[in-house]
TrEMBL record:
GO biological process: recognition of pollen; response to other organism
UniProt entry tagged with the keyword Disulfide bond: yes
Record organism: Oryza brachyantha
Lineage: Eukaryota, Viridiplantae, Streptophyta, Embryophyta, Tracheophyta
Database matches in PANTHER family: RECEPTOR-LIKE SERINE/THREONINE-PROTEIN KINASE SD1-8 (PTHR27002), RECEPTOR-LIKE SERINE_THREONINE-PROTEIN KINASE (PTHR27002:SF616)
Domain annotation Bulb-type lectin: ranges: 25-150
Domain Protein kinase per the UniProt entry, residue ranges: 550-829
UniProt-recorded name of the protein: Receptor-like serine/threonine-protein kinase
Amino acid sequence: MMTWPWRALSLAALLLLLPSPAEPFDTVTTGAPLAGNRTLVSAKGTFALGFFTPDAAAGRTYLGIWYSNIPTMTVVWVANRASPVLGSAVLKIDANGSLVVVNGQGGVVWASPVTPAAVLRAGNATAQLLDNGNFVLRFAGAGVVWQSFDYPTDTLLPGMKLGIDFRTGLDRYISSWRASDDPSPGEYSFRIDPRGSPEFFLYRWSTRTYGSGPWNGYQFSGVPNLRTNTFLSYQYVSTADEAYYRYVLDDGAAVLTRFVMNSSGQMQRLMWIDTRRSWSVFSSYPMDECEAYRACGAYGVCNVEQSPMCGCAAGFEPRYPRAWALRDGSGGCERRTALNCTGGDGFAVARNMKLPESANATVDMALGLDECRQSCLSNCACRAYASANVSSPGGKGCFMWTGDLLDMRQFDSGGQDLFVRLAASDLPTNSVSDNSQTAKLVEIIVPSVVALLLLLVGLVICVIKLKKSRKAIPSALNNGQVTPFGQRSHIAGSLDNGQNTPFGQRNHIAASNDAQNNSSLRPTAGQGNHQDLDLPSFDVETILYATNNFSADNKLGQGGFGPVYMGRLDNGQDIAVKRLSRRSTQGLREFKNEVKLIAKLQHRNLVRLLGCCIDGSERMLIYEYMHNRSLNTFLFNEEKQSMLNWAKRFSIINGIARGILYLHQDSALRIIHRDLKASNILLDRDMNPKISDFGVARIFGTDQTTAYTKKVVGTYGYMSPEYAMDGVFSMKSDVFSFGVLVLEIVSGKKNRGFYHNELDLNLLRYAWRLWKEGRTLEFLDQSIAGTSSNVTEVVRCIQIGLLCVQEQPRHRPTMSAVTMMLGSESPVLLEPCEPAFSTGRSLISDDTAEASRSNSARSWTVTVVEGR
Ligand SMILES: *[C@@H]1O[C@H](CO)[C@@H](O)[C@H](O)[C@H]1NC(C)=O
Ligand SMILES: *[C@@H]1O[C@H](CO)[C@@H](O)[C@H](O)[C@H]1NC(C)=O
Ligand SMILES: *[C@@H]1O[C@H](CO)[C@@H](O)[C@H](O)[C@H]1NC(C)=O
Ligand SMILES: *[C@@H]1O[C@H](CO)[C@@H](O)[C@H](O)[C@H]1NC(C)=O
Ligand SMILES: *[C@@H]1O[C@H](CO)[C@@H](O)[C@H](O)[C@H]1NC(C)=O
Ligand SMILES: *[C@@H]1O[C@H](CO)[C@@H](O)[C@H](O)[C@H]1NC(C)=O
Ligand SMILES: *[C@@H]1O[C@H](CO)[C@@H](O)[C@H](O)[C@H]1NC(C)=O
């Protein structure tokens, strides 16, 4: 929102200065220049044009256009942004037919291009401010020769084109103001790259910092929430003459809306909300870390729902595993197996994608998707293909990428399918390698980068142990010996697409990467040496036997760094074995503390690392096996959620609380988990919850309460506001995540954080609203609402959940208070404050709610706003 001190020059003052409406005051002519305080006002009174002085102290005066019918001075266009006038100024049409701004001394500070003499001779010049905010210079008989819409500043109004006119070379782009009171060109600009399928890029100075994704016939593939709604449509036009983007309002849509690049480089869509008398931000880009330009390098796929956020496309592996482990994915990924152009290559599909940069892509609107596939296969340079017109499923339109695939991300929902070419051996086994219309598809595998690290550290320790015991391990691995263990495929269950391990998606244990915080990696107490560790090492024969010689039937999943197998030990214990792929061979001593930490933690609500196994180049970690996978597979699955009745849910909530309490207080160390979420809560055979994934956990000294990181890791939707915004984490940020979990468990709904599509998808807000309206019980998961639930417990859990997600960390209870509240029968709990609506998007939820409440007469205009 633009709020400047000089808005004291308010509408009232402006109106007093306006001439009576009888005369046409929307034009400047040769004989009638515009001077001093006079302003032009468009026919319906929407826009005004005149001189303004944003910073009264500096006294710099600019010619600009602003909204004339709202009380907040909002400038949408500036003429002389680089050359302000000090003192009085005049706008006139000069003898050459050019609009000029002249200063008090008669010097020209700004001029539109000179009009060709032929046009000039033909007739009178008029410059008129139109009601859409366009200021046009016309000549009788020659039409418009110049318009402000062709020279945007930081604002894109409805109808304005953003893009290139190839005939004239005119490149319309927007660039930020330097500061909110200084319209001179700032650091950021947003402009089109017309190569391939055009895409918009945000530049900071001349460096790209964000790409919108190529246009896919319907929207920019990286901005899936900007889509046509009932009153506003987005258009992209690409012809031999022009390539531009614009959005238009329906006739009669009585809304004021604009896109603006603010001076911090945020591209925002705002809408004027009358009842609040202010502008509200409806979307803002870039919006998360995944939007950093090429954040995950070539063939890397960014996904904010994952941590680490960078993964590789299926069939690819990190090029620099060590940097990836440190959560720097910018080095990208490389192919496991080189392509064989002459035959056998196939495609793996990646879903919900922001398409790669298309500068080196070809677009052929005549090819359907199958022809597209054939065409890509027959071109050795082709790396991937996708539909280039998603608005006609099964119709025509083909993208083919011939260069590296760059700047990809994966969305939770939205985005589109991308077909990535792979060598036959890298194709998922159930996929048909070629020429099939119904090729089986696999998902992108987001690899468990840090799991590798855990593995490595575990191995370092194992090596040490081995050295000590000088125990010889026969290298029996992979020599094809068959063990008499029966098939156990039924135990492996139905893991979807090999992505999940029984430990959630990325069970990783590693130190944090924040170099500046390295000291916090070391526990202040309990600095032991290796002898402290109680990490058993397993014989390789034991593991071979337990996993049926790593039979495919025992495979639970495949992470980026190696497969995970289910197994059963002789004593009947079920285990999960993570087998490190051979290519990863970094010794990472600095992670030793973390493994020490994990090996030391023992609690019935934490997942247990049982030991490790090392043999030649084989490296494995052994965990207890979780028969019921993770909480999210029940909670957010329509078929399974009713299996968790209230009693189970309440016991899960209690178990999680005890696990966190142990981490925070009751273990020898103080540990902040930092990535608590439903997929990191594993469930054993009896549905007991176990916290897993200590990949980003931090050890605090006993007297330490908060820490700060520059690199926020974790999962949006579960992050407390102070952590997401400022990198401040503490036990109270875990409490926040716990609160989100509680509300999810009670409601059976996922809190989507950044990605809420509709109002009600922001779970915290929904819970709060029901709470305030006294309809708390409606929050309970409908699938168990009919069954006997302990109403007091339900309400108490919701209240505790709300207490945990309060904006201010100091208002949130500690975990020991939480466990006490959960255990007590007494209903006297504190009254929660309004929750933080998670990660800085509160404005949106607020406004949408406000708008739909207060504006029902026009609700079609405001309730259908797009958002995530
Ligand atoms: C412009 O406004 C100022 C103060 O509002 C006033 O003093 C001045 O006379 C005005 N000038 C003209 C040309 O109207
Ligand atoms: C008109 O253009 C000519 C040539 O560009 C220039 O020399 C002259 O000063 C201009 N006249 C005015 C009034 O700006
Ligand atoms: C120019 O404008 C004047 C006054 O508006 C008008 O009388 C005259 O006919 C116009 N000339 C042309 C060529 O349009
Ligand atoms: C730009 O927008 C972002 C996101 O809404 C906001 O955090 C930032 O303060 C804004 N910058 C300015 C200068 O208004
Ligand atoms: C490519 O595939 C063909 C047919 O399967 C095979 O004959 C050829 O050796 C392969 N080339 C390479 C370089 O792998
Ligand atoms: C995309 O498909 C839609 C629906 O079939 C069609 O109307 C539109 O013209 C297509 N766009 C292009 C660029 O071919
Ligand atoms: C496009 O290809 C050129 C030449 O091969 C290469 O230099 C450039 O990096 C590629 N750009 C992209 C975005 O792949």
